[in-house]
């Protein structure tokens, strides 16, 4: 198993420092180390699934928990009313680099269009 595969588990365990925004029994949220917007927070389920599809089929309740935590992060960060974007990158063309599913919560400013 490469470092990339275990990075978020080590962050959740406190072995690697992170700027925590929110935590509950099933999810952990912390600031992205290379923010792509004024607010850029990652929401990670504590139990590891490789990507959104595997999480959705393996534990739908945990996916609902991730969505709920994304909403809580938006409220904590004061962007729930101004609007925000939630992104799950999956594999190569999307540029996924950490294979422990995570939601990017982005906002705090007008976001550009995305895609190509
Ligand atoms: P993805 O490319 O969707 O797999 O997203 C992985 C994200 O993890 C990237 O946006 C990275 O900037 C972020 N990242 C990598 N290492 C850390 C770290 N130690 N703390 C916080 N964010 C990290």
Structural account:
- The chain has one domain: HIT-like (HIT family, subunit A).
- Helices cover 34% and strands 22% of the residues.
- The chain is built from 4 helices and 5 strands.
- It has a 5-stranded antiparallel beta sheet, covered by helices on one side.
- Helix 2 crosses helix 3.
- The N and C termini lie far apart (31 Å).
- Bound molecules: adenosine monophosphate.
Number of helices: 4
Q: What are the bound molecules?
A: adenosine monophosphate
The CATH homologous superfamily is called: HIT-like
Biggest sheet, open or closed, and with what strands and sense?
A: 5 strands, antiparallel
Proportion of residues in helical segments:
25-40%
Tell me, rounded to a whole number, the average pLDDT: 95
CATH-assigned fold name = HIT family, subunit A
Query: How are the strands ordered across the major sheet?
Result: 1-2-3-5-4
The CATH architecture comes to: 2-Layer Sandwich
Tell me the fraction of residues in β-strands, as a range.
15-25%
Can you tell me the overall shape? globular
Low-confidence stretches: none
Structural class: alpha+beta
Write the layout of secondary structure elements.
Blueprint: H1 3-12, E1 20-23, E2 27-31, E3 39-45, H2 52-58, H3 60-77, E4 84-87, H4 91-94, E5 103-107
Antiparallel strand pairs: 1-2, 2-3, 3-5, 4-5
Helix pairs in contact: 2-3
Bound molecules: adenosine monophosphate (AMP).
Adenosine monophosphate is lined by residues 7, 16, 18, 32-34, 42, 89, 95-98.
